[in-house]
Amino acid sequence: MFEAANILIEDRLRTKWLDTLIDWDNVEFNPVRGTSFVRLQIEWVDANAVSVGGRNRGDGYINLSVFVPSNTGTQTATKMADDLAAIFDKWDTGNLRFKIARITRVGEQEQWYRLDVLVPFTYDECL
């Protein structure tokens, strides 16, 4: 279940997001000072059996962290957050369904200003 959903999510981002580099989970990444980038993390928060016939359901969210250079204002970061949200908002593959994104401000971190785009999802697996 987890691998299938992760592949769908990563493929969607890989094909739809062409604006900056992406920092993929568990892949070496060295950010370039002064260059914006995005980090993807997939978080699973619950999983359970939802039918006697063997259907499993997992709930989670994706965290798309937006990094822009410090001291450059918020416009670039919020535009990137809007564009990333649009990729996943209400996206439905049949077994993977996303809800509406929300944004949280993380703020300054070393040389970066950071916003997180959080998009909840549900994944149904038919066994």
Structure characterization notes:
The chain has 127 residues and is α+β, with helices and mostly antiparallel strands. It has a single domain (2-126), classed as STM4215-like. Helices cover 23% and strands 45% of the residues. It has two helices and six strands. It has helices spanning 2-16, 75-88; strands spanning 21-23, 37-49, 55-69, 96-98, 102-109, 112-126. Strands 1, 2, 3, 4, 5 and 6 form a six-stranded mixed β-sheet that branches. The chain is elongated. 20% of the residues are buried. The model has no long low-confidence stretch (mean pLDDT 93).
Count the DSSP helices: 2
CATH architecture: 2-Layer Sandwich
Domain count, please report it. Answer: 1
* Percentage of residues in strands: 35-45%
Radius of gyration: 16 Å
CATH topological fold name: STM4215-like
How far the N terminus sits from the C terminus, by CA atoms, comes to: 10 Å
CATH class, please?
Alpha Beta
Please give the share of residues in helix: 10-25%
Gross morphology: elongated
The average pLDDT is 93
The number of distinct β-strands equals 6
Q: The biggest beta sheet, please?
A: 6 strands, mixed
Structural class: alpha+beta
Order of helices and strands: HEEEHEEE
Spans where pLDDT lies below 50 across 5 or more residues? none
